[in-house]
Amino acid sequence: MTDDELEFDMVGVDAAIANAFRRILLSEVPTMAIEKVFIYNNTSIIQDEVLAHRLGLIPIKADPRLNVPKIPSLKMPQILMKGDIRPEIDIKLHCVKGIGRDHAKFSPVATASYRLLPEITILRPVTGEMAERLQKCFSPGVIELENVNGKKQAVVKHARKDTCSREVFRHDDLKDLVKLSRIRDHFILESTGILQTDVLVSEAIKGHIGSYGSL
Q1: What's the pLDDT at 214?
Q2: Domain ranges in the chain?
Q3: Domain DNA-directed RNA polymerase RpoA/D/Rpb3-type, which positions (predicted)?
Q4: At a CB cut-off of 8 Å and minimum separation 6, what does 16 contact?
Q5: pLDDT of residue 78
Q6: What pLDDT does 77 receive?
Q7: How far apart are CA 59 and CA 31, in angstroms?
Q8: What average pLDDT does this structure show over 118-141?
């Protein structure tokens, strides 16, 4: 978990539960967004309606769990633009709390997805030049080379870094040496958004319990 991104695992559940969390992150976790735009002056080339629409899609970093009725008035005078045009924009913005199911501007995440945990099994020892080629068939960090009896041997280090590459099947002498599969009840969920990542998860869990009953 970082300030901007979150990756966590759900183990021992089926796809319906994982997808429910994904859908809740997209459409059920409340956020703040600009709902009312009062334009007092707009001398730019952007029409009032287009300007209001664009402003409505700006993520607002405000805790939706608090009662935040609106943000302060915003005035942007003398903005330098191409051609030395200096428009003045005088606006007041009001924010409200909402959910993505009502409008996309309230969605707290830029993306929310899940995937099954990859499982890579090397069926027979792969050494030397073949080991180096096998390593290049996968994303960095998936396969590493270890020194075994003076020879480089391929070993699986971080299968979760695999990006579903099928490059190994292009090599006739390698394709039968590995087995690629997925663990069917181990999901990796990834998301990034305007809210803190721990808040996203806790609010999604609350939404899951409220919508689908206790876990």
Answers
A1: 43
A2: 30-107, 124-176
A3: 5-215
A4: none
A5: 44
A6: 47
A7: 9
A8: 93
HEC letters along the chain: CCCCEEEEEEECCCHHHHHHHHHHHHHCCCEEEEEEEEEEEECCCCCHHHHHHHHHCCCCCCCCCCCCCCCCCEEECCCCEHHHECCCEEEEEEEEEECCCCCHHHCCEEEEEEEEEEEEEECCCCEHHHHHHHHHCCCCCCEEEEEECCEEEEEECCHHHCCCCCHHHHCCCCCCCEEEEEEEEEEEEEEEECCCHHHHHHHHHHHHHHHHCCC
Give the model's pLDDT for residue 94: 87
Least confident of 87-96, 132-141, 149-158, 179-188: 87-96
* Residue bearing tokens 């009725």: 69
pLDDT tens, 27-78? 888 888 888 999 999 988 899 999 999 998 888 887 777 755 545 444 544 4
Distance between CA 99 and CA 64 in Å, rounded?
10
Q: What is the pTM of this model?
A: 0.68
120/64 Cα distance (integer angstroms): 42
CATH topology of domain 30-107: RNA Polymerase Alpha Subunit; Chain A, domain 2 (2.170.120)
3-class SS at 58?
Answer: coil
Q: Which residue has the tokens 């901007």?
A: 4
Beta bridge partners of 42: 89
- Per the CB < 8 A criterion, the answer to whether 79 and 87 are in contact is yes
Supply 124's token pair. Answer: 């027979």
What's the DSSP call for residue 194? S
- Spatial separation of the C-alpha atoms in residues 110 and 71, rounded to whole Å: 22
